[in-house]
Write a structure and sequence with these properties.
single chain; mainly alpha; 400 residues; 5 strands; elongated; 17 helices; DNA polymerase, domain 1; 47% helix; disordered N terminus; two-stranded antiparallel ribbon; 3-stranded antiparallel β-sheet; 4% strand
C-alpha cells in the first residue's frame, strides 16, 4: 500500500520517489492516494502538488457570452495563477471515482492548509456531512458529478419542513456550494454541475442589529483583571488589544513576541484572515497592561499568550477564559455570546459615530472593502448628529 500525504511544500526528490512507485513502463498500477481507496491511476495523470493561497473563486450565474465575430477583437484572459496553484494532484480522470466523502476530506485538508480556524473547518465538516447523510437516506448518488441544483433545492424544502431556521438552512447550503466551487476549480465536476449548484439561492436571513460592548461593561471586565497577578495581567492585555484594534479572536491568539514594538507604539499582526500583515494600535493603556503581563510571563514561547507553565495559550482555552470573565462580571448573555467579536463590532461602530475616515478604520481592522464597514454602520441606532454630540469628549481615538 502506498500512501501519500499532501504538504504545502514538497521537494522535487520526494515527488520523484513517489512517481517511481508507479509502473516504470507507464502502465496503470493500483495505488492508494491520500483520499482515494482502490483508485487506478496512470503515471501521466499525476501532476504537481498543490500549494495553498488561492481565494475562493466566484462562479457567474449568467449565461455564457457569445463568441466574438470576425470583426471584433478577441480578448485573451490571463490564467489566474492563485487558483492554478491550488489545483490538486488528482486529475479529472481519476476523480471520476471520487465520492463525496473523499471530496470533503480533500476540501477540509485544503482549508487546514489555508489556516482556516478550527471552528470554520468543523462547521464545514458538520454541514457537508449532513448533506451527504441526507443524500444517502434519499437514495441519491454520492458521486460529485451526479449532484445538481435540484438536490440542493430539495434539501432546502426538507430542512424547512423540519422546522429549521433560515439561518441554519443558509449555512448548510452555502457550505455545500463553496465546496463545489473548489471541486469545479480542481476539475472534479463539470462546469454544468457547478453552474447548476451555484444558481441555487440561499434563504434570506433578516439582519438583527447586535449590541456593542458599553464602556460600563468594559470597565467591569477590567476591574476583574488586577495587573499584579499573571492571569489578571494577561486578561487585561488581551482586553486592551481587543478594544483598541477590534481584533479577530484568531488574530489575537496568534500574536508573536517579536512583533511587539513598545518604542514604535505598534504591534504587527502576521496571521490575519486575509493573509495580509497589518500594524495594530498600541497606545499607553495597552502598553501598560502588556508590560505588566510580560514582567510575569514565564517561558520563551514565540507566541505572546502563554499559560502559567510557559506553554502556548491555545485558541479554545483563550475563549473559555474570557467567557468566564464575562460571567463573573455579570454581563448579559446577549453580549457575552460573541465575547471577542463584540469588540470588533464596538470598535467599528464607535469609529463610524465619530466619523473616523473609513480608510483608517479598514487599515486597523483588516477589511478590504467599505461594504463590510457599512454592515456595522447599518446597525447604529443613533444618527450622526446625536453620535457626535454624545462622543465629543471621548478620548479613545485622540491619542496617536
Amino acid at each position: 500500500m502506498v500512501k501519500r500525504n499532501y504538504t504545502a511544500k514538497e521537494t522535487k526528490e520526494q515527488r520523484e520517489n513517489y512517481l517511481n512507485k508507479l509502473s516504470p513502463n507507464g502502465e496503470e498500477k493500483r495505488i492508494y492516494g491520500p483520499f482515494l481507496e482502490n483508485t487506478t491511476v496512470n503515471r501521466e495523470v499525476v501532476g504537481s502538488t498543490p500549494t495553498w493561497g488561492a481565494k475562493t473563486p466566484k462562479l457567474s450565474t449568467k449565461s455564457p457570452k457569445k463568441a466574438p465575430s470576425d470583426g471584433q477583437k478577441k480578448v485573451v484572459k490571463k490564467p489566474n495563477d492563485r487558483i492554478a496553484k491550488a489545483t490538486p494532484t488528482l486529475s479529472p480522470r481519476s476523480a471520476m471515482i471520487v465520492r463525496l466523502p473523499e471530496l470533503l476530506e480533500h476540501y477540509l485538508n485544503y482549508c487546514f492548509g489555508e489556516q482556516f480556524s478550527e471552528v470554520t473547518i468543523s462547521s464545514y465538516k458538520k454541514e457537508v456531512n449532513q448533506f451527504i447523510k441526507w443524500l444517502s437516506t434519499q437514495g441519491h448518488s454520492l458521486l460529485p458529478g451526479d449532484v445538481t441544483g435540484f438536490h440542493l433545492e430539495s434539501l432546502k424544502l426538507h430542512m424547512a419542513g423540519q422546522g429549521n431556521m433560515p439561518k441554519t438552512v443558509r449555512t448548510r447550503i452555502q457550505s455545500v456550494k463553496t465546496m463545489f466551487v473548489w471541486a469545479n476549480v480542481w476539475e472534479w465536476v463539470s462546469d454544468e454541475v457547478a453552474f447548476s449548484i451555484n444558481r441555487v439561492k440561499c434563504p434570506k436571513v433578516p439582519r438583527v442589529p447586535k449590541k456593542c460592548l458599553s464602556l460600563e461593561n468594559f470597565q467591569k471586565l477590567i476591574d476583574l483583571c488586577p495587573l499584579n497577578t499573571f492571569a489578571g495581567a494577561r486578561r487585561a492585555a488581551m482586553l486592551w488589544m481587543l478594544r483598541e484594534n477590534g481584533l479577530r479572536k484568531r488574530e489575537l491568539n496568534m500574536l508573536e513576541m517579536r512583533d511587539i514594538d513598545f518604542k514604535g507604539r505598534r504591534v504587527l499582526a502576521r496571521h490575519t484572515k486575509i493573509k495580509k500583515q497589518r500594524y495594530l494600535r498600541f497606545p499607553a493603556t495597552a502598553q501598560k497592561a502588556m508590560a505588566a503581563y510580560l514582567a510575569l510571563r514565564p517561558g520563551n514561547d514565540p507566541k505572546v499568550w502563554v499559560c502559567e507553565d510557559g506553554s502556548w495559550f491555545k485558541y479554545h482555552s483563550m475563549g473559555q477564559d474570557i467567557t468566564r470573565l464575562y460571567e463573573r462580571a455579570g454581563i448579559p448573555a446577549s453580549e457575552r455570546r460573541d465575547a471577542f467579536h463584540i469588540f470588533r463590532r464596538t470598535f467599528i461602530t464607535e469609529a463610524e459615530k465619530q466619523r473616523m475616515p473609513r480608510e483608517y478604520t479598514m487599515a486597523i481592522v483588516g477589511h478590504e472593502t467599505e461594504a463590510m464597514i457599512g454592515l456595522y454602520a447599518a446597525d447604529m441606532k443613533a444618527d450622526q448628529a446625536a453620535a457626535l454630540e454624545d462622543f465629543k469628549d471621548f478620548e479613545w481615538y485622540k491619542e496617536g
